[in-house]
Amino acid sequence: MIRLLADAGADLNHRDSDGLYPIHVLACRSADCLRTLLEYRRKVDIEAKSSSGMTALLLAVSSNPVELENVKVLINAGANLDATNEMGHMALSWTYTSNYDKLVSLTLQQEDFDINLCARSYGNALHQACKNGKIDLVKMLVDHGSDINLLLRCNYGTPLQCVCLASDDSNYENIKDIMRYLIANGADVKAEGGLFGSVIDSAAMVASSDAIRLLLEHGAPLDIMDDMGRLPIHHASINYLDVFKILVKAGGDISVRDKLRRTTLHCAAQYGNAEVVEHLLERMGPEAVHYTDIDGWTPLCWVVRGLDRYYDSHEGSTDRLKVVRLLLEHNADVSAQGTIGKESFSVLKIARYSNADPKIFTLLRKGIGEEGATKYPRGDLRLLSRLFLSQYSFGQYEESYTIAKPAMILISVEKCYHHRDIIHPAAKYPNHEFEEIGPGYDPSPPQSRKGSILSLSSSSFSSGWGGGSEEDDANKVAAIDEERDSEDD
């Protein structure tokens, strides 16, 4: 049929409504059909790109499993092995494919393949093999001349950093073996670069205590900062406590601050790392809970803000509610005020803005006294109740997003955006333009709001706000506030 249509003059480069050409469709189907189409090579644009920037070869190698025969057909027909899509992915970027090792072996046989060609965010094949704990592939790539110290400015840095960021427990032994292999073959444990600054910065965040010890034994320094001014000790504050203690023993300073003036306690609180927070509260003294960052944010502000971990290997150790309780037990000030840009934010407002667990709101409001009795002064309680009730007046707060071009990375941390000149300087990142595409929240009340602020339906809010026990809590707080006002009169 393909030959019949081609001989009849059919357009072999016709683009359908999904942005696909015939060669794109056949790249993931029958190799025989693909061969037939490529008999008309002069009429077929083998490098044509889909609407997402995918060539036929990129589509073939990203299928799972990869149809290796199709890849061979395309390569033999002259497909460009160095092609990239709009996200910078190239032929060996899709490591999830079940026969990825065979694809690498096939690609390495091609004389025109640049083994050190990098996707701008994910590196080359060696970076990917290290990140996924594939020791046989690592050895194969190094044997074929892959640069063992090839450095990426963003994300992964060097291949050794990639190994340190590998968080799959099933590859634990492979990860240690790869680290030893790379170091034995000349990997630089002191290399600077990547999103997290250095090899041990990356390892401190997610790696095991054995990995940390190995790097320290080979002279990894503890004084290399990332772009945000974070040292390995900052990154270790989100890892397990034993890793944190190893770095402290090696000379890490628990009171050191990053460019945003955050201590290790701010960092540990932000990620809900209760065991490290508890350890720091014992060592840093009673004033630590009141330490403020560049915007006046205390550790309590940061824990209710929260942030997902870069990697999920330690997600089970996240307990923000416990961290809030620990900070309150050490007399953290629930009425503390910080800023985002020019706007002032209370602890409760930050929590609401960040869609925190409703249990955190209850703990902030009632405190940790007997039977939930608040420990806070009258004025503070009234402030909290009004902010609590404004949830119903204004609706759910939503994050504003900022786009960094051309990387098109969505950055949801508006607080950091206001300090982009400090943590993302234009001199270092000249091609990244920031465009604000929405307000943090709409301060105007919903059009449907009539009468009591509690008349809004629960569907107006997320995270269970607006009904049931949460509505009862709001009524109680409103009553307390009215009582305080009458006393003042």
UniProtKB/TrEMBL annotation:
ANK repeat ranges per the UniProt record: 52-86, 121-153
Compositionally biased intervals (Low complexity): 451-463
Keyword Repeat: yes
Pfam families documented for this protein: Ank_2
Chain coiled-coil ranges: none
Cross-referenced InterPro entries: Ankyrin_rpt, Ankyrin_rpt-contain_sf
Residues spanning the signal sequence: none
Biased segments, Acidic residues type: 480-489
Region (Disordered) location: 434-489
Top-level taxon: Eukaryota
Keyword presence, Cytoplasm: no
Listed name of the protein: Ankyrin
Organism: Hymenoscyphus albidus
